[in-house]
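Contributing new records

If you add data, match the layout below exactly. Sequence lines come first and carry their own label; structure lines follow with theirs. Keep one chain per record. Anything else will be rejected by the validation script.
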Amino acid sequence: MKSLLKLGLVYTYKCNASCASCCFECHPNLTEKMELKDALDYIHQAAASSTFDEIGISGGEALLYEDEVLKILDYASGLGLKTSLTTNGFWGNTQENALYKLELLKEKGLTNLVVSTDEFHQSFIDYDYIENILIANEIVGIPLKIYNLVIRTSSEHPLATKYKQCDWIKGACVPAGRAKHQIPSGNYIYGDYGGRCTYADKLTIMPDDFVYPCCSPGIRLKSMQLGSVSELSIAQLVQAKENAALLNIIIRRGPKWLKEAGEARGCFLQNRQDEYVSICHLCMEIFEDEVFLQQMEPFIKEILAEIDYEKHLKREPVFRDKT
């Protein structure tokens, strides 16, 4: 059975913070956002296609447009879709306010909440705000993940020990967007970047109408665009995703495998590195490298054919002698 997708709505680039780690380089003076009527249309198409089971809302800081977000949640949940929301928690200034907001979000159908909190966000949002949300949610009970972005010099999150029963997710900062310019290369945590991509299980729509196959920090590269939602339907964009040859190789084999397949054919990344933060980091470097992509173009069909043949061999039926 084919897995269902998640439709990601990056609702706005406007944010009340200007984090050094921000992959989209959001800040308070940006005004670009999605129109509510368009967001509702995308959700309607997603539900009608039976290809999606969840709507994810993020930004920027989507809750700067609280009334619109509540309408989106209400509409999506009314169509039987799960919903998730990513926020920096600026609305948790008091426990009373945190409780009120959480109850409102739950009432409108929010099924998952992600709170981003780390040294980068807390330059703008006090840790007390996050604690107010954690305390209030013990009453409301929305499934909650706390996302903590880290670099080499990061200390343990001050709330992690006190609230260790919560679902903490620690992610290594990727050199994309503002982070690429503001965080020294020696501060990144380099790690395993092998294996196939498991993050391309969604379509992400940006405020400028362009659509991408994942929510990686490196998206917004032209070579990763599947098309524009102002020109193509959600169903057509899903088909474009399924037909994207390079993306299919990364999903089925991974960016490291593709990099090595290129090197075996004499194609090398212009910005070759000995280490990467993650699969997403290497994937971003591949899609950003126009020379590498051009060099690899003649080999893509051949590589996909090899992958399909390997898959075929693994599925060959075993015939037993019945005599």
